[in-house]
Each structure stands twice: as structure tokens, then as C-alpha cells.
Amino acid sequence: MPRGPRFAFQNAFYHVFNRGINKQDIFLADEDYEFFLSKLYALRRKYDHSIYAMCLMPNHFHISVQTRKTPISKIMSSLTTSYSMYFNHKYQHFGPVFQNRFKSILIENDSYFLELSRYIYLNPVKARLVQDPAMYRYTSLREALGKEPLHFLDQDVLRLIGDTKNLFMRE
């Protein structure tokens, strides 16, 4: 049975994520993370959308994104197809890299938006990759905290999340 079409809305906020097939790692070297990030940045410039949080984990990724006119499926399809081609060529891998098409959840309220950001940024801590989420290299947390210039994140992120001093503290 074919899968149904995605519902797409202009100016919508989404939590998008995907993981490697059979939960296998999709980032095997620093260059893999860098390629994915460079493509994510290029697509941010190509399509009209904003990123509010992102984290790349060894076997999956999470991105909080707001679309405008370009549907989320076009943005994510460009990203995952490009990365799959890169990965398959580099590692002489055949077949799908990602477990499925990306998943997306519509962010419908502010509390979910804030909790999602917290979840995304604490993912490396939960996976025991780091103790301090700001020390994880493949996340936009340092941008959100104002410790690095905005590169991936939209300027409005500071207005939306406000004071970030205690936002990502573990309980």
C-alpha cells in the first residue's frame, strides 16, 4: 500500500528527524558531519526556511525548522538524497542510508517548541557522548546561547527562546 502524502503548511514549524537504516551510524567521520552541515547550510540559503535547533548524532539527526513557501518535503528530500549519494559514494555502500523517509511532527505551540529545543540539545548528553551539551560539536546550541555567531540558526531564535541561561540545564 503506498504511503499517503504529507500535509504541508506554509509558515509552519516542524520537528524533522531521521536515522540510519537498521539504526546504523550515518556519520562515520568528521567529514561526514561537515558534508551534511554544509548541505544544510546551502539549502537554508537556497530555500526560504529557518532553522531553530539542530543536532547530528552518529546514527540520526534532529532539526527544528520553519518553512515558508518551500514545502518541508522538498527541503528534506534535497538534504537526505544529497547526503545518501555522498555516503554511498564515499563508503562504496549500496542501497538506502536512511531507515525511511524523514519523519516530521508539526510544532503547534510554544511549550512544545521549547521542550523540543531542550530535547534536541540534550540528545548528546542522554546518549553519553558528552556531559555538557555545549561541548558537543554537531549542534547549534552554542549559537542559541550566543557563544558563537549565528550561522545555521535564524536571527529570530533569540526572540523566540528569550533568556537561555537555564533553558538547557539538566534536572
Structure description:
By secondary structure, this protein is α+β, with helices and mostly antiparallel strands. The chain has a single domain, classed as Alpha-Beta Plaits (2-Layer Sandwich). 37% of the residues lie in helices and 17% in strands. It has 5 helices and 4 strands. It has a 4-stranded antiparallel β-sheet, with helices on both faces. Strand 2 and strand 3 form a beta hairpin.
Total strands: 4
So how many helices? Answer: 5
Please give the CATH class: Alpha Beta
Which band does the percent of strand residues land in?
15-25%
SSE succession: EHEEHEHHH
Biggest β-sheet, characterized? Answer: 4 strands, antiparallel
Mean pLDDT: 87
**Stretches where pLDDT falls below 50 for ≥5 residues?**
167-171
The total domain count is: 1
**What would the principal axes of the Cα set say about the shape?**
globular
From the alpha carbons, calculate the radius of gyration and give it in angstroms.
Answer: 16 Å
Q: Helices and strands: which structural class? A: alpha+beta
CATH architecture: 2-Layer Sandwich
- CATH T-level topology: Alpha-Beta Plaits
CATH superfamily: Transposase IS200-like
Oligomer: single chain
Helical amount: 25-40%
Widest sheet: strand ordering: 2-3-1-4
In angstroms, what separates the terminal alpha carbons?
44 Å
